[in-house]
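Hello forum,

I keep getting stuck at the same step: I have a sequence, I want structure tokens, and every attempt I make locally crashes halfway through. Rather than fight my setup again tonight, could one of you with a working pipeline run this one for me? It's a single chain of 411 residues.
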Amino acid sequence: MKITLITFTSSFMTPAAMRATHQEILSALEHHFDVTLIDYHDIDHLQNDTVCVPFIASGGTERLYQQCFTKLPRPYLLLADGQANSLAASLEIGAWIRQSGQRSEILHGDIDTIINRIELYAHETQALRAMKGKRIGVIGTPSSWLIASDVDYFIAKQRWGVTYVDISLGHLIDYYNATRAEHYAAEAKHIIQAASAFREGTTFDVQEALRIYHALTRIVEEERLDALTLSCFSLIEQIGTTGCLGLSLLNDKGIIAGCEGDLQAVFTMLLAKTLTGKDSFMANPSVIDVKHNELLISHCTIGLNQTRRYLLRSHFESGKGIGIQGILPEGPITLVKCGGQCLDTFFVSDGTLLENTDHPNMCRTQLRLKLQQPVDYFLHRPIGNHHILIEGHHAQQLQTIFQMMGCNKIH
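Reply #2:
Ran it on my machine without issues. Output:
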């Protein structure tokens, strides 16, 4: 891995003296990384894709760092080995960064720990760079009951680099009307045959759901979308079918697709995919069991590729169209949500998927979870309704990236 150390030294230290003073840590890093040293004066010449770590190499550098602060990448890491008053200067700089409302971290001490942190930082940096320029389509308007799930588009772009794109539901319906159900007979047959069961609905309903999927795909291509959220209940009201299967197939195709026009949930899904490489499941918390620190989550769509097997059902609330009951593998999971209008608060917890349930009065895919964090969060300090489930344990990785972006953790 290539890294660049931006060196901050006082005017009393020559480059040769800097090298001699810090020979131990520099040799250790060069044994593990392809290291380039540049002086802070040359910071304007850095490439955007460079993994950069400020190296506080002597005392008396506090003002120099302050002058370069706006040009330095987040998170604000400070490498200091303690030689030539480097740690003392880093403590002062770190305090100033925190007074500025930002987070800082000093890399000091055990070299293996420093190397591991730099490797993690490189992965985080790459993920954040990958988020920049992502386009999230908002097809229709958010459901009226999502009264705590708005996002400030401008701040989302400033903080995370993502762009929300408003698209009328009528545009989707026009593309839907340009096709006929019989066009998708063969595709519908394949989906039906691969299902473990087909409890409600008809073959025609599957064909109608595929009309929605292909209409969504046209919009994704036209608008160059990386993700979308659909006002699915408005769609049911206007054309009598659901987007559940369409969203499921889009997720399988690598396009992050969420329900109900939830702006915060679809962002969380996109970030989770970018950081972990994992697909996710957007769901309602339906039952909270504080005594056993468990909860049950449910929704009517999930990517088919995320399931061990799936059943074709109707949409729970309306009884119309096609919903998905996915059966997922038990084992380690992560539950996460990034919320707030500024996308600056988060909850995250590792946990275990204990059981797939089949209660009659809930959305079709139902999962019973046990979390490591207290589930009374949902009763006292929730970040809205929908939360996002990812297979595997990723809480530490997600928490690190939220904290480096200055987000507040909700416990």
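DSSP finds 14 helices and 19 strands in the chain. If your local run keeps crashing, start a new thread with the error log.
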